[in-house]
Amino acid sequence: MDPFKLVRAQTNAAAIAASTSQDTKFIAGGTNIIDLMKLYVETPKQLVDITGLNLNQIEAQPDGSIKIGALVKNSTLAYHPTIVKQYPVLSEALLSGASAQLRNMASVGGNLLQRPRCYYFYDTAFPCNKREPGTGCSAIPGYNRNHAVLGTTENCITTHPSDMCVAMAALGATIQVQSAKGVRNIAFNDFYIIPGKTPQYETILRPGELITSVTLPHLPFAAKSHYLKVRDRASYEFALTSAAVALDLSNGKINNSRIALGGVGTKPWRSLAAEKVLNGATANAQTFRAAADAAMAGAKPYQYNAFKIELAKRTIVRALETVGGMV
Amino acid sequence: MKKEEPNFPPQQLPSDTSRRSFLTKMAVAGAGLTLVPLMSPAAEKEVENTMVLPIEVNDVTLTINGQSHTLNLDTRVTLLDLLREKLLLMGTKKGCDHGQCGACTVLMNGNRINSCLMLAGLCHGAQITTVEGLANGDKLHPMQEAFIKYDGFQCGYCTPGQICSAVGLVKEGHAKTDAEIREAMSGNICRCGAYQNILSAIKEVQQQTA
Predict the structure, then answer these.
(1) Nearest-CA distance A81 → chain B (Å)
(2) Which helix (H) or strand (E) segment is A310 a member of?
(3) What is the ipTM metric for this complex?
(4) Nearest Cβ partner of B122 from A3, A51, A236?
(5) Residues contacting residue A325 through CB under 8 Å, at least 6 positions apart
(6) In this predicted model, what pLDDT tens digit does every residue of A169-220 receive, in sequence order?
(7) CA B103, CA B94: separation in Å to the nearest integer?
(8) A interface test, pick of B57, B74, B75, B81 with most A CB neighbours within 10 Å
(9) Interface of B with A in 101-140 (CB under 8 A)
(10) Among candidates B13, B206, B188, B123, which has minimal Cα distance to A30?
């Protein structure tokens, strides 16, 4: 690692004041940033230790929503009784990611901001528009089996790696951010961007902004939800494809639904098109397949990842069948 | 098995001829501390000029296996390197150094973590337990006993991490079935393939503590 100053922040305001430069990053669990710093992919001159801030609560709000502090550990969130009962898709997504040790270290805020796992991004010997804008994308002409088929551009095709984010995208969570200008709430889908003209960013967050919490909306039918993760290994690996789904069913008819995809998009991929096919339709294999087709419409295959399109459709169908009690 | 006292902080190094102590003597000679004449003065000067001294440092106080330490460290030092290089607690192993193998697993405030990705500077006020801290004098921890009873290791390199991880798993109290225990231990890999016996050891300890 390159040398860096380490400062401990006692308050949100102090953390924000210390972080206004591009060369400063927050550190909480450290499971992503330390990994990247050891490889010189990230080279901050200063780290602001925010582990002392008061952001570790999970609190039910009067309107039925659940506010989750940015410093809540992944493992704590995954096993929280309210999450397990009312938002099982989120618990399942968290538990499908990483290892127990990493889940004990990693914070919710850090999971939101985790950087991609493209091996060209990780290897400073290769050109990478995300690491160094303008140098080119090594994955497009390279070995791109793990890369995205949705939301790709000529600048970057890497998938967003988080499982938690796919579940939160499906649930329509809101991210609260504090800066010197005050507090703002950002819709989950607006927080993440596809790698258009600025592939170096995965989110709209800028220096001097601190994520303080994520809020899950009151969504009773989320109690009937599921996360299905498909990968080469049975555990401890990123998704080839994944689906976070929720169904509001009565008498075999779908009143409402949520679908978001992982492993295939350059951002956590909520699919309103798939939900439109489901809502009002009968819950059966044909409906699910039609929704899957809608979800993957416009997917662009690359040389080594064309299989993901069909695999993603089957992942969606299987996840819906599981929630619908049909498998 | 006699438990060796850890030698920290190293003021006077043991005069054995192991590679570790030879290299440490080189580093120590360069820093101008205890000198053992092994090179010419000119060569020693060259070592001193090429040594990387800490640039940014931080104070941290933490408790390791019940003993409190107050240290001034390069901010880049990970908990793993603090344990092994500074405090000579070499039970915890460096496997991948990137949080992917679990050989560096220790307990921090009772929770299992990968020490290779934990900055020492973020451990201010923490209670750390390493494999060296599991036994009670000459009395092994039940998990250590179980690993021996069920032959839960071959080369032993992943073993300290496996044992600490297993202790953490039992404390977490979530994994019950064989499949769940395997899943919960998926952050610890074993090239020798002792997995089946590790599973047996964990199940025995779970039954004991039930």
Answers:
(1) 13
(2) helix A307-323
(3) 0.96
(4) A51
(5) none
(6) 999 999 999 999 999 999 999 999 999 999 999 999 999 999 999 999 999 9
(7) 6
(8) B75
(9) 102, 105, 111-114, 117-119, 121-122, 124
(10) B123
